[in-house]
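INFO worker-7 received task bundle
INFO bundle size: 2
INFO processing item 0
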Amino acid sequence: MVACTVCKRGEAFFQRAYSGERLCKKCFCRSIEAKVKATISKYEMLEPDDRLAVAVSGGKDSVSLLHIMTKIEKGFPKASLSAIIVDEGIKGYRDEAAEIAIDNCGRLGVEYRTVSFKDLYGYTLDEIVGMTRDSSLTPCSYCGVLRRKALNMGARSVKASKMATAHNLDDEAQTYLINIIHGDPLRVLRVKPVLTPTQPDLVQRIKPFCEVPEREIALYAYVKRIVFQSVPCPYAGAALRNDVRNMLNRLEEKHPGMKYTIFRSIEKLRNTLEESGLKVELRRCEICAEPTTGRICQTCQILQDLRII
């Protein structure tokens, strides 16, 4: 038997290549929860009386985050927690995911609010994809923009002071590289562990999983026997992110710790840019009055292109 390097008693079942640790199941789960708590403390993500909304899709990351944040929230009597579930309208996929998300909320005693593309925009994502087959944009490009606005509106509807999303270490590294590929490296100012509040209608977002690798979140969910949707979104294969994910995973396998190195580079670059005086200015969209960096928000631009508004 190979002993756990932390407790010295349990049998190790997982080895972290980037740290050399060999962990038993109990110590592994504790390490994930400790990492989340340390991240929250490091970036001063939460206050004792925050009304927290957790964005829950039904996948391993968001459901695991809901379980961990519910556990943390119990230690703060003045705080409250609810879940926001977005129904994009993806036949054969979203119904199952929403059911799993709602089931987990029930198990944890968490109130939830569901917002849908159909109610907000008049069309499901499936219908939008059907209307844009000749577009150069992928379904994920539309979904990402529409989903962000839906989440913000959902969080506002439950009067949340903060909204936690399940973006993990892999997501952060991938996003940084995608922005470079798209020629927009300064977007790093808008993609950070804690979103700087600049508009009262924009619910401040936090990312408690930003320093936790995706693989370890999946393992945590399996060990804890958390029920989550394992089927990938049918539109995900067309996204550039898929190629960047595969590239980063190959690099991580050859050079353990690479994803953390990229994340630290992002932090250094962002700090330098902020110290130089660069910042993101938000205003209200001229059509829907939601926060945006331009005259018209991306959602309204999409809906205009589709001739929905």
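INFO item 0 finished
INFO processing item 1
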Amino acid sequence: MVLTDDFQNAIELISKSQNVLITTHVRPDGDACGCVVAMTEALRTLGKNTKPMLLSELPQWYEFLFEEKAPLYDRDIKPDQLTDIDLIIMVDVNSDNQLPKFCDYLKNQRDGARVLVLDHHVTNDGLGDVEIIDTSASATGLIVYDLLEFAGWPVTEKIAAALFVAISTDTGWFQFSNTDARTLITVGKLTEYGINATDIYHRLYQNFTPQRFRLMTRMFDSLELHFEDRYAVQQLTLKDFEETGASYTDTENLIDRCRCINTVEAAALFIELEDGRVRCSLRSTGNVDMRLVGQKFGGGGHVVAAGVHLPGPLENAKQLIYNAVKEQLKA
């Protein structure tokens, strides 16, 4: 639970700043994108010079949130172009390994800019001068909403829609076990600002490109079930991306598809990367702590949703996670 002092410290930090950079973790998901947009819009209404920035490409289905395409760090924005920044707000992240390249800027090149962290993950590297961390929140979007409400700052329809996306995606459209009373009460308040939930659902979940749909069928074809069908394994190879024309951003949330199998308690999706590593997304129904599985190899996340990068080849990565999941299933 967030303490009043944490909110007050954050408000004081924002009030003393004028040029604000807002960013989030690499491979931004709905919670990350929604919070970036909500904080950008909220601070602009306060007269702040606010710049959103991403660390990797924006998935196509979140583009509707942004009025303009958000620039990418180290491609569109170089470190020497951030010399006027006096406050950096990082949402949905507080971990070094989720901030490639930008982490070096934070530690060595930010020229005295203060850092405010808003996050709900257990993994915490203490990157902020002021941090609002609430691991009980189902999404960082809830923390952002609480901050705006505490500060008495206006919530527009655009801000409400962005926070609705943040919360709805991190709860699997309110299917996941982290959907609690606080989640639903906040979402109820957001709908009062005139947002169109049906349109948002269509943009998020009924907006596949043909390439992404073909990639998903490749993933289905790779399905393996282990431990009496309790553990589902799927994979996507470099060849799958080449032949379908899909991109790495197209993999978001595909792992959740195997949750339809009634025996599955844990799932892993292995994705071959061009640098030889393997990215592994981990999911659980709650009986298996996937955060511990990811942390064992330098990753992190939540009990029901985590991730990690592993050394290749693909079969080696699959074996590492197989052994770790086996331990968790026994536990």
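INFO item 1 finished
INFO post-check item 1: The chain has two domains: 4-204, 210-330.
INFO post-check item 1: The mean pLDDT is 94.
INFO worker-7 idle
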